[in-house]
Amino acid sequence: MDTLFENRTDAGRQLAEALGAYAGRSDLIVLALPRGGVPVAYEVARALKAPLDLLIVRKLGTPGNPELAMGAIASGGASVLNRDVVSIYRISDEVIENAAAKERQELERRERLYRGDRPYPDIENRCIIVVDDGIATGATMRAGLAALRQRNPACVVVAVPLAPVDTVERLRAEVDEVVCLMTPEPFFAVGQGYRDFSQTTDDEVREILTRAWGETSD
Fold this sequence. Notes:
Shape: globular
Number of domains: 2
Radius of gyration: 17 Å
CATH class of the largest domain: Alpha Beta
């Protein structure tokens, strides 16, 4: 497969072109999944002239099977439970609350690290574009979307440079639109679509957000 994206900045610029129909909407907010989604989303938000913020998601792992999500919490105080998993594994309310409290601490730590005292945006009745640098299974994205819907956005768009075909199809059933530039077959990992897929650091996230929020306030 030929490499399509030089890096996350290049991917964000190409993604922004595909999202051109949303440019200039007064109700638009772009939410990035940190860390890798932030440089992609920055280019999208800048091109569409929309504010940029974060959707931080923390999975609640099932006891004994931490990779299986029994729920998730997300930025803005939203949370969601996977009722099927909770029922099948007979997970008590106490276990759920203990897991949520632990992950809430980590979510709040990341919020402070990235956002400082900046409040989470009001997304009720707004058009939300959720951006990541790519999706594999989609578990984190779907958990974030489930929590996001509790805050009553008017519409939700998932925008990513690449993802597997089956993941894109599942997401289409959950949001208003999925914009995905590349669905490589076979799909091995998000990094296969990038020439440079070096890790995005916390410092880079903070620098990008500072730049974005400064531009928004100008």
